[in-house]
Amino acid sequence: MTPRAATALLLLVQIFLVADASLDNSTDAVGSLEDSADEYNRIDSDEDAAEPAPDDDEPRTPTEDPGTRHDDDDDVGERLLLTPLLEAGHLDEARQLSRVKGAPFPDHVESYSGFFTVDPQFDSNLFFWFFPAEKNYEEAPVIVWLQGGPGQPSLIGIFMEIGPFSVAPDNVSLQDNPYSWHKNYSLLFIDNPVGTGFSYTNNQSGYATNQAEIADGLYTAVLQFFTLFPELQENPLYVAGESYGGKHAISLAHFIHNRNPSANITINLKGLFIVSGFFDPVSCLHYSEFLYQVGLLDFNEKKAVKIMEQKGRELIRQGNYKQALHVSNSVHVQCNSINSPHVI
Ligand SMILES: *[C@@H]1O[C@H](CO)[C@@H](O)[C@H](O)[C@H]1NC(C)=O
Ligand SMILES: *[C@@H]1O[C@H](CO)[C@@H](O)[C@H](O)[C@H]1NC(C)=O
Ligand SMILES: *[C@@H]1O[C@H](CO)[C@@H](O)[C@H](O)[C@H]1NC(C)=O
Ligand SMILES: *[C@@H]1O[C@H](CO)[C@@H](O)[C@H](O)[C@H]1NC(C)=O
Ligand SMILES: *[C@@H]1O[C@H](CO)[C@@H](O)[C@H](O)[C@H]1NC(C)=O
Questions:
Q1: Can you give the pTM of this predicted structure?
Q2: Which residue owns the Cα nearest ligand 4 atom 9?
Q3: Which parts of the sequence are annotated with region: Disordered (predicted)?
Q4: pLDDT of 267-316, one tens digit each?
Q5: Which one of 184, 185, 186 would you pick to mutate in the ligand 3 pocket, going by the greatest count of ligand atoms within 8 A of its CB?
Q6: Which terminus of the chain faces fewer neighbouring Cβ atoms within 10 Å, N or C?
Q7: CB 190, CB 152: distance < 8 Å
Q8: 274, exposed or middle or buried, with CB in 10 Å at 0-12, 13-18, 19+?
Q9: Residue 78 gets which letter from DSSP?
């Protein structure tokens, strides 16, 4: 299956998941709308300054066995910062240290994880988790997977969408995902931008304020990834972004395309794909007609959602982004309350 076919399939699966559920008017939907708004206000507030990360950024030593670290609930170990090792040319050591081992992670899934420093001035570091393709590793395309939000960790992609395992119903152990994309593709998940998931900075000024800064950080991380896995440098690379991550995918791909001609490490960028993209609100806020045509909204629901969409676009045009976000969230809640993990 080509990545393009895979994306189409994922979209179809999402639509079909929705098809057998009914539009629901539950307080949950209202609750998540309020949550989203609260979340937004919180992010928007200057009081919520950078929480300085603990001062524990010494790279882990090879004598520590990462597999035993979860035994002590109070001690989760130290962050594995790989950049100093890469800069010193200690690739084997970096690789060995980043290998994910031990319960609850299944032995038959090989993976690597750690942090790449993307801005030394502010001590900004991106967290990644890499799953080599099970089949045809030498030739298989590499897919960079970026979650949306903004602010969603790419662990969502691993545990809930395309990764090798998910959390089992006991809420403790992991179960295999037989449809994991890592069977045929190498998958690089990155928590992006800095401040998302495990990715962090030690200075308020380390947070990205525009797409160029986000792309720059991602690009730096991808270059370090190919330094750590030089055998993959020639493999086709696809950048995938879900939802708002579509924006990051476009930015990163554009950045690679521009940088490649003068770069020391040329990235074999072949394409990008956007899953349930939400990268341009004015043109994306048009779900009602499509969802009506495929039978997911009835006539009255379509009319109601369409009014909200028009209102959202109008508010954007007026520059009233906070209200626009509120309305746009209502559209999402309304459509997603038909009960998909992520319809739009
Ligand atoms: C949705 O909730 C409102 C307020 O509780 C109620 O008036 C309305 O009848 C509900 N609609 C449906 C379809 O249940
Ligand atoms: C797992 O977590 C969910 C969500 O919190 C909860 O509904 C469910 O009862 C939990 N299952 C077990 C076995 O604890
Ligand atoms: C992997 O590719 C094989 C054929 O190349 C296909 O049969 C299989 O379904 C693919 N697996 C996944 C999980 O996409
Ligand atoms: C953050 O960076 C600015 C600009 O370089 C610097 O003036 C400031 O001292 C830094 N703050 C901390 C907490 O490191
Ligand atoms: C490429 O590598 C050379 C030699 O290591 C270095 O001097 C140069 O700055 C690098 N160029 C870029 C664009 O990184």
A1: 0.74
A2: 203
A3: 28-75
A4: 999 999 998 888 888 888 888 998 899 988 889 889 999 999 999 999 99
A5: 184
A6: N
A7: no
A8: buried
A9: -
